[in-house]
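Why do we care about 3D structure at all? Because function follows from shape, and shape follows, mostly, from sequence. That is the central idea of this module. The next example makes it concrete: a single protein chain, its amino acid sequence, and then its structure expressed as tokens.
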Amino acid sequence: MPSPGHAIDVAGSGPRQFSFWTGPYSHAVNLAEVRDAYAAMADRYIELFGTSEQVHAEDLALIGRHLAIRPGRVLDLGCGPGHLTGYLRSLGVDATGIDMVPEFIAYAKTTHPGVPYRLGSMTDLDVADHSIAGILAWYSLIHLPPPDLDGVLAEFRRAIVPGGTLVVGFFDGDRVEAFDHKVVTAYRWPVHEFSERLARAGFTEVEHQRRPGNDTHRPLAAIAAVAAGV
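And the structure:
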């Protein structure tokens, strides 16, 4: 699975409001649920999103602009079918794809021979502190309940070298809220609020982009951020 993410962007039944900040720590969506949901529709997901040609040109440019600028290892977390890992490798990046869905990893290894892919989770990266030059989390955080986001971003910051880059893609919105995603419950975020969460974890935003929704997709956003020095 995109761990957990890579959204299949289809119309849902409208947002549901949650009061995230006054209740106990939320695990309303757990990793096993997300993994199993993506595994069940892996073939359809690969058909819709399995190549970099199906990614918007502006998104590819943003990813390349921020993750192909310095040497070192880059992790594509929640790599799904592995298309963006392959894209980064085509730019000369030492990229590794990590996902929790075995079907996605098997497809990625077959489609992109010679590119490293492995099963794993973004909640425990199994890398040394400050050993990674960059992380791509492209719609891989969309299923995390908001109270769970800070811990995952802290794990990213632990892994990334000072000055390293994190690029995230997510659903844009006027407020933090859940909605009925085709696979399993997902969340939309205002760009400024997601940027604040990144700052809390030790990242500084350097660029963001937004794409309005239309008949085929919801409003989308992406942020590139740099890890602060230790």
